[in-house]
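Async update (no meeting this week)

Hi team, since we skipped the sync, here's where things stand on the single-chain job. The sequence we agreed to prioritize is pasted below, unchanged from the tracker. I ran it this morning and attached the output directly underneath so nobody has to dig for it. Comments welcome in thread, and please keep replies under the output.
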Amino acid sequence: MPHATQHADVATAQLDSALRGGPFHVALRAAIAARGLPLQRVQHHLSRHGVKVGVTSLSYWQQGARRPQRPESLRAVRALEEILQLPEESLIRLLAEADSEPEERRPAGRSYRAHLAASGVLDQLLTELGYPSPDGGVHTLGHHERIRIGPRRELAGRESHLIVRAHRDGVDRFVAVHYGDPGCVPARMTVHALENCRTGRVRTHQETGVLVTELLFDTRLGAGDTHLFRYGVEDATAGVSREYVRGFGTAGGQYALQVRFDAAALPVRCHRFTQHSPAAPRGGRQELVLSGQHHSVHLVEPRVRSGMLGIGWDWE
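Output:
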């Protein structure tokens, strides 16, 4: 079968190249493709090695949306080297190289390493709160987010208005996540439950600037029920802000992002952008015009796709 042989040769060549030059997620994806294993089979092989990793986590790893960091995850990477018939330490080496990658080679804004560290911390905080997955039993049908940039050019705060639908019975809360800018102090941030919810437990992580909070509903939703609620986060604990990014693990409903600037701190340019993952190059750049009276720009995505979406701005 010449065609099948040729395809295998190409896959092997791509794998060899990825193992030499990385990055980690490209090498992992190439290795899985070269062996022809669906992620469910990879997960099964890992379980036989005594390592538990979800299919979703494996998918995130090979997309570059998350990076293995916990001891259990690193055990999984070493097991993957054996399962995928790779040289010993080949994937571990690429992970170490990602940690030492020069900052100027990474995407603008929060560094690649910072995004990956934050994703690992988020997993830990969600586990502490007893959430096996970030969605908490609901799908987001609509999310309107308003960002305020203060007179010191800082991220002063944000407000979110959400419409969700439960995909199982008994849902009575939502887990909200806020990522502060570099240098922020999550312990000094304040969460406000504004409508149809109240604040529950709050967890923060100083090094990555992550804040996670429960928003408790006054009702218990059945599968298919919808709920509208609104909350805000007062931040203003970091320095100069230059962008706001929202990540989406899966495709979903409508998303609207509005950034409003204080009259004493107006940017010279604004633009929207998309990004497949923290490691991927940015695309979809489109200039945005600042409105006159309210000093704001916005974007609307009728149906979000997996990846990242944001607005950036230049001060000078």
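Quick observations from my side:
Residues 50 and 261 are 52 Å apart (CA to CA).
Helices lie at 2-21, 24-35, 39-48, 55-63, 71-83, 90-99, 112-128.
Reply here if anything looks off.
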